[in-house]
Amino acid sequence: MEEMPTPHPYPHWMLREIHEQPATLAATLDHYLDRDGFRDEVCAPLRAWLRSAQDEIVIAASGSSRHAGMCAELLIEDLSGIAVDVEYASEYCYRSEKALKDAAVLVVSQSGETADTLAALRKATAAGHQTLAIANVAHSTMAREATVSFPTLAGIERAVPATKSFTAQLLNLLLLALLAAESRECFGEGELKSRLADLATLPAMVAAQLPRWEQSVRAVSEHYRTAASFLFLGRGIHYPIAREGSLKLKESSYLHAEGYPSGELKHGPNALVSEGIPLVMIATVDRSDRSDNGSVERYEKTVALMRDMRAQGADILALANSGDTTVAALATHTIFVDETREELLPICEVIPLQLLAYFIAVANGIDVDHPRNLTKAVLAE
Prior knowledge:
Layout: H1 13-19, H2 21-32, E1 33-34, E2 37-38, H3 40-51, E3 56-61, H4 63-80, E4 83-88, H5 89-92, E5 104-109, H6 115-126, E6 131-135, H7 141-145, E7 148-149, H8 164-183, H9 191-200, H10 202-224, E8 229-234, H11 238-253, E9 256-261, E10 279-283, H12 295-311, E11 316-321, H13 325-330, E12 333-337, H14 345-363
């Protein structure tokens, strides 16, 4: 009888898969890029699909995949100017035919078999839309039925909580945004090459920080394991990462958590802020002159909000740039992320949040690889 695989040398698959992310990110970059840029032989179908998406793209996805789609909305719109609308797959498949937009449709799914996302794909196909599927299984139903398949290269993911498959989706979607900008000639001379050069450093950047993130998160997890609830806050492209962090904590640790745009906290949720409900605040920034994305302004607004929350007595766990003493002085605990381009920060930010969910779950005695009531692929609504 064939021996069942184990997560050795890690105690759980989830932790092993978190640590596999530098390798899976590198595999994606090696597959879609070469030293001259995008590989024509694998990216030609993506370029053809983008030509059908010159006016609008609709992204249909659920769960973590939808959070990746929310990041893609901002990346594609900001880099290329193509309008993007993100739908819950479970809602899109019940929309009236009159409500369906004349848009190219992108579906995102880890398994490529998710029932409601597959239903959304089939509805889009029946309505005559050009479709693109991002899935982690190259021969999945979605990959076969979509006009174009754009597979992630995360490999088999055994833990139910998505970790390496999520960052693989983020990377594919960033590549798609860059292709869209290239197709619309939105970059000045040398800009695409510069962005791709920075992107090539991502796997090594993550690998270098992972041991430090694990050590830092392990240390703070004991402080937060008994919290009644959490509020995760982020602005711009960091808001979907706040939502993903809250989802990871819910599904892994059985603790209540919600993700909000930072600017919405005072519009109601602030009533919840108290000693027993910590704030997890994403306060990273891209200060480079090359970046015209509002990153510095968002950061300054986040720091101002942190000051207000500390005055209220809030317990704040912050994600901040390495060496950021301003945020560290305002936060109860700080996890540091090395500064990089704004579009690369979400991949770096979400990994410490994955580790937070993992260590709190383990501290509370939960089988983190098999959370109750959840399956790896939702095959029925």
